[in-house]
Amino acid sequence: MIKQLGSTLITNDHGVGSVVQVPRPTPLTASVIARRQAVGERIRRVREHHNLSQRELCERTGIDIASYSRIEQGHSSPLLDTLIRISDAIGVELADLVQR
Predict the structure, then answer these.
(1) Residue 66 belongs to what H/E stretch?
(2) Which fold has domain 30-98?
(3) Beta strands across the sheet bearing 18-21
(4) What are the Cα distances from residue 12, in Å, to 22, 23, 40, 46, 71?
(5) Pairing of strands 8-11, 2-5
(6) Residues whose CB falls within 8 Å of the CB of residue 53, separated by 6 or more in sequence, listed in order
(7) Domain residues of the chain, as ranges?
(8) d(CA 24, CA 98)
(9) Between the CA of residue 62 and those of 32, 54, 65, 68, 96, what are the distances in Å?
(10) pLDDT tens across 54-90, in order?
(11) pLDDT tens, 2-52?
(12) How far apart are CA 70 and CA 25, in angstroms?
């Protein structure tokens, strides 16, 4: 069992009550946020170009609509697997969704 408490990871994999310090993630830079928003906007444009609603795309991918909406708005960073599912559902190459 593993529990995350702030920056401390508590696990019993190596003994009951082992405590390991986990580094805090670095804050996102403005350029990373802008790029994430651009990818979300590109995904939205490609989806709309293929005449798909968010609901239709979510049904094809198995992604819940709230999570998908956050991706398009640039509020969430999708996993590579999620981007692959989105590109497959739309019928475009993955690179078409993330290129500059």
Answers:
(1) helix 65-73
(2) 434 Repressor (Amino-terminal Domain) (1.10.260)
(3) 2-5, 8-11, 18-21
(4) 15, 19, 39, 46, 35
(5) antiparallel
(6) none
(7) 30-98
(8) 27
(9) 27, 11, 9, 10, 21
(10) 999 999 999 999 999 999 999 999 999 999 999 999 9
(11) 445 555 555 555 555 566 677 777 888 999 999 999 999 999 999 999 999
(12) 20
* DSSP label of 15: B
Looking at this protein, which amino acid is placed at residue 24? R
Note whether 39 and 87 are within 8 A (CB). no
Please tell me the distance from the alpha carbon of residue 82 to that of residue 70, in angstroms, as a whole number.
13
24 near 5, Cβ under 8 Å?
Answer: no
Cα atoms in the Cβ-side hemisphere of radius 13 Å centred on 14: 5
Write down the pTM of the prediction. Answer: 0.73
Position 34: which residue type?
A
